[in-house]
Amino acid sequence: MAKDYRKLIQNSGFKMYQVAHEAHISASNLSVWLRYPDELNASQKERLETALTKLGIKFN
Question: 3-33 burial by CB neighbour count: b if 16+ within 10 A, else e?
Fold first, then answer.
């Protein structure tokens, strides 16, 4: 089961576009990534988790 990144972002107080900006992707791409978290490849997961870490969002 994939992590619920969407819920983490919503609970953090950050907006989706802020996370997308930090991950260097478009907000629409982030939306797709969050819709299908089980299908993220290792590179996408790393990019997303790095962005979350930089914003101070704990995901472990």
Answer: eebbebbeebebeeebbbebbebeeeebeeb
CB 9 within 8 A of CB 59: no
* pTM of the predicted model as reported, rounded to 2 decimal places: 0.89
Residue 60 lies in a domain: no
d(C-alpha 7, C-alpha 25), whole Å: 19
3-class state of residue 57 by DSSP: coil
User: What pLDDT tens digit does each residue of the chain (60 aa) get?
Assistant: 568 999 999 999 999 999 999 999 999 999 999 999 999 999 999 999 999 999 999 977
| Domain count along the chain | 1
